[in-house]
Amino acid sequence: xxxxxSVFSQTTELHxxxxxxxxxxNIHIINRTSQKFTITNATGFFTIPSKLHDTLIISSIQHExxxxxxxxxMLENKKFQIFLKPLINLLDEVVVGKxxxxxLMQDLQNxxxxxxxxxxxxxxxxxxxxxxxxxxRLSYARSGxxxxxxxxxNGNIKRFKMQVQLEEKEELIHKIRAEQEENLFASxxxxxxxxxxxxxxxAEGPDFLERCKNKNGVLVLQYLIEKLEVYKENRxx
Length: 237
Known about the structure:
Helix content is 44%, strand content 19%.
């Protein structure tokens, strides 16, 4: 018997497993739609309540960020697997500047630097960015006059735009977290159980992409400190 629309709207306990060549324990699984959260066990298994079209974010410092949209097949089977790739941190810029003192606020004021990229150094490298699956879908939906009209009417273009922006934010906040978390919380402590919520609080900010995309580490850290103050104020209220 096939699913009905009423079944699609129900929340189901989904059983998933993360497959990876690295450590599979304590990988974060976030249902971005319902704001539910869990972590994997030693063998990569987890359970999280979900419903149709919910977005799951699989986040780990050691792995590439993965975003999954719950579909009817996953709900019907009530189980699925997610394959994670190791995160390879490539050196894409070298900052030449003053020696840092170790005092975070003092260093923020004193650092005056210009990033040295591979392009500036004359090293041959690919400077473009490979489109994601959602970006390819959006490009295809916009191709041709008839296709653009049809996909505008049925909402595909709007949905693909939202997915592209979601993935862009998730990828950026994952990168920022890997680079800034240790320094940020060393100087501005925050309970470990609140840190994941804080990162997504930052990503939801209307100025997040404008303030953090393609910006150097000092500017990004300034943004994080500002957001952390607001986050703590909101929780105290």
